[in-house]
Design goal:
single chain; 7 helices; 2 domains; about 25% strand; Rossmann fold; Methionyl-tRNA Fmet Formyltransferase, Chain A, domain 2
């Protein structure tokens, strides 16, 4: 198959490219979004990401960075693509884009669909105190993460201190195992296992209030709030809290007695083990 790859980073493209080639397929172009939505402003740091993708770009491979999506169907058709393989793309792909490849498009999603459809499933799994996540590979439809499932596996542990590099490395190993199966299913036109719509949940962007700690909430909710934001910032940030008339950005907490600041929540104590004054931290 001739495959157009869509991903979020040089590492993501390299993973998809390697697995597709090992499965006997031919990547013909890369597609990357520099903005969170079509025609939207360029994301902070997008230039560095694109530079990394370009530096790692295989010889002869085209990198497409569209500002709008109305031209995408014609671009994909121009590459005579049989399949689109997506892993990390913030735009909703229209039916016209999906149908521009002969077989359609498949997507790698880091949850056990239909749970946590949407852009940040791992953050929500941490927020909700889940003990593990999984990886699903499914057909893409016009609605986010709703198509038939081609391959799926759970078992990636969410430890109390979720280290992004470690977790993403485990996710990559799951993708290496599952994507060849999904590709073989796609070749046959297998429609995938339908998702149970009644069990579907959505993992959208966190509400603005989630950036602030309310000490009146349950202590596990506060602890998971800190964990989720730390994961989303690659360990560099956390929610803001008022502590003894000071504003702190809370990086780490403990549910067990530990060295640090003891704070009372709605149902018991939590210990702040790492924090920085707001004025000294990145906003």
């Amino acid at each position: 198959m001739r495959i157009v790859l869509i991903s979020y980073s040089a590492e993501g493209f390299a993973l998809l490219h390697r697995v597709c080639e090992q499965a006997g397929h031919l990547p013909v172009a890369y597609l990357h979004a520099r903005s969170l939505r079509p025609s939207g402003p360029t994301r902070s740091g997008a230039g560095d990401v694109v530079r990394g993708i370009v530096d790692a770009l295989p010889g002869g491979m085209d990198l497409l960075i569209p500002g709008r999506k109305n031209a995408l169907p014609h671009i994909v058709e121009g590459y005579q693509a049989d399949l689109i393989v997506c892993y990390g793309f913030p735009w909703k792909l229209s039916s016209a884009i999906i149908q521009s490849a002969n077989l359609g498009a498949i997507n790698v999603h880091t949850s056990m669909l239909p749970k946590y459809r949407g852009p940040i499933p791992i953050n929500w799994a941490i927020r909700n105190g889940d003990r593990e996540i999984g990886v699903s590979i499914h057909w893409m439809e016009s609605e986010f993460d709703s198509g038939g499932i081609l391959a799926q596996e759970s078992g990636i542990a969410l430890r109390d201190d979720v280290v992004p590099g470690v977790l993403w490395g485990e996710v990559d190993r799951y993708i290496e195992r599952l994507l060849p199966l999904a590709l073989s299913q796609a070749v046959t036109g297998f429609p995938g296992t339908p998702q149970d719509e009644e069990s579907a949940t959505y993992a959208g962007w966190m509400e603005p209030e989630f950036s602030w700690i309310d000490w009146g909430t349950a202590r596990e909710a506060v602890h998971n709030q800190v964990r989720a934001i730390r994961f989303g910032s690659s360990g560099k940030s956390g929610p803001v809290a008022t502590v003894a008339d000071r504003r702190l950005r809370v990086i780490r907490t403990s549910l067990q007695p530990a060295d640090g600041i003891k704070m009372m929540c709605g149902d018991g104590p939590v210990w702040i083990t790492e924090s920085v004054p707001v004025a000294d931290s990145a906003s």
